[in-house]
Amino acid sequence: MGTEKILFYLFAALTVYGALMVITVRNPVKAALFLVFTFFTSAAIWLLMEAEFLAIVLVLVYVGAVMVLFLFVVMMLDINLAQLREGFVRYLPVGVAVAVAFAVMLIMLVGSDWFASVPVPPPAPAEANNTRDLGRLLYTVYVYPFEIAAVILLVAIVAAIALTLRRRTGVKYQTPGEQIAVRRRDRIRMIDMPPEEPK
User: Fold this and answer.
1) Which of 86, 100, 111, 198 has its CA 20 to 30 A from that of 165?
2) Is 54 buried (19+), middle (13-18) or exposed (0-12) by CB count in 10 A?
């Protein structure tokens, strides 16, 4: 067994361990940190597969932006942990059934002869640049799915802002429309005062 296989199995085991800890740990902040750990190990697996661009994007986007934002949201929200723990036992049989179904499907897929029939692509030359090739594919062949995915993400951002926008009593809000439509005579009052005579 070569070094690459040893590293692959090591990072794969760490990825499975981190994913299991994400769904079993009770503290949501610790679950988010385990998810960051899972992303890092997945990026290491992609590096072993010579997909450097995808590994860097996974670390920069998910770990650097999404998970930091998720941690801020989790720490700022007042989450009732007792209520979450009550629902865990109730939905445990459904979760176990779904996990067993996924495991059976994966075993059937990996154990079949489908992977053996797939031809192995020739190794890429040393001067190959997968970032350039991926960009060429994204902006030529898959430009419409790429743009549709961008619009869906924009809609998701707007929906998340709309769902979390709450009106609270006793809080002063600014209305930009009223501030823009203000007139000079509404804010300035001219006072005619007689000049003071020197004594």
Assistant:
1) 86
2) middle
| 4 & 61 share domain | yes
On average, the pLDDT of the chain sits at 81
Q: Tell me the C-alpha distance between 186 and 188, whole Å.
A: 6
pLDDT in tens, 75-108: 766 666 666 666 667 778 888 899 899 889 888 8
Does residue 171 lie in a domain region?
no
> Could you tell me the CA-to-CA distances from 8 to 19, 103, 151, 156 in Å, in that order?
16, 20, 35, 34
Q: How many CA atoms lie within 13 A of 121 on its CB side?
A: 3
CB 22 within 8 A of CB 31: yes
Out of 50, 80, 110, a domain closes at 80
d(CA 176, CA 155): 23
Task: Say if residue 72 is in the same domain as residue 132.
Answer: no
**Residue 117: how many other CB atoms lie within 10 Å:** 7
**Which range marks the domain in which residue 26 is found?**
1-80
Please state whether the predicted TM-score (pTM) of the whole model is above 0.85: no
